[in-house]
């Protein structure tokens, strides 16, 4: 009886240690429902956290990241891949270079989102507590809240169904290959009915504005 109990305790400790960190070069990583891990890292593979699973750090280079309903994570990072937060999922921050980010209903990013090229979509009742920073891409929000500001150089901001944001800033390109493309297509800002931009819009370059009369915008500043 005593030996069986010791064996059970030993296996339990091994199982807990295995969840402390999972790392691989090639292959997917899956964290089972309600399990916890300090770090999940892979180079070429997808990472998935099942329902109510928790991880402090999630990182992949070429792969997608998905958090199922009510899953939790600290910093989530990928270079080439998509990130999806299912209903009620929570993360501290997100960083990606090329890919798409999807926040389903009631999903939350406590701090901010940083990306270079891609698309961010937020469904009803989802929330980002900090800024959205991107160079080229699209921000699409429906009934969602971005408490910081949306910053972009090229691309589109499309807010509908009562979405709210602190401020929208369209930056002037700082040189390099992007500067030569500024005349090809202007950034576009679309604000539907009942959308609120609390601190207004700041334009460092020309942009196309499509603002519904029922939207609330705290002023437009043109710095060019």
Keywords:
224 residues, mainly beta, 1 helix, 23 strands
Question: Please, what is the average pLDDT?
Answer: 89
Spatial strand order of the main sheet: 9-10-12-15-13-11
Rounded to an integer, what's the Rg over CA atoms?
Answer: 21 Å
Structure class: mainly beta
Count of alpha and pi helical runs:
1
End-to-end separation in angstroms reads: 80 Å
Q: Considering DSSP H and I runs of 4 or more, what fraction of the residues is helical? A: under 10%
Largest sheet: 6 strands, parallel, barrel
Query: How many structurally independent domains?
Result: 2
Give the total of beta strands. 23
Low-confidence stretches: 1-18
Indicate the proportion of strand residues.
over 45%
Shape, per Cα inertia axes:
elongated
Order of helices and strands: HEEEEEEEEEEEEEEEEEEEEEEE
Which secondary structure elements does this structure contain, and how are they paired or packed?
Blueprint: H1 2-18, E1 21-26, E2 29-31, E3 36-44, E4 47-49, E5 54-62, E6 65-67, E7 72-80, E8 83-85, E9 90-103, E10 108-109, E11 113-122, E12 127-128, E13 132-133, E14 136-142, E15 145-152, E16 154-160, E17 164-170, E18 188-191, E19 196-197, E20 201-203, E21 208-211, E22 216-217, E23 220-222
Parallel strand pairs: 1-3, 2-4, 3-5, 4-6, 5-7, 6-8, 7-9, 8-9, 9-10, 9-11, 10-12, 11-13, 11-14, 12-15, 13-15, 14-16, 15-17, 16-18, 17-19, 17-20, 18-21, 19-22, 20-23
Task: Explain the overall architecture.
Helices cover 8% and strands 54% of the residues. The chain is built from one helix and 23 strands. It has a six-stranded parallel β-barrel. The protein is elongated, with a radius of gyration of 21 Å. It has two domains: 87 residues; 113 residues, no CATH class. It is mainly beta.
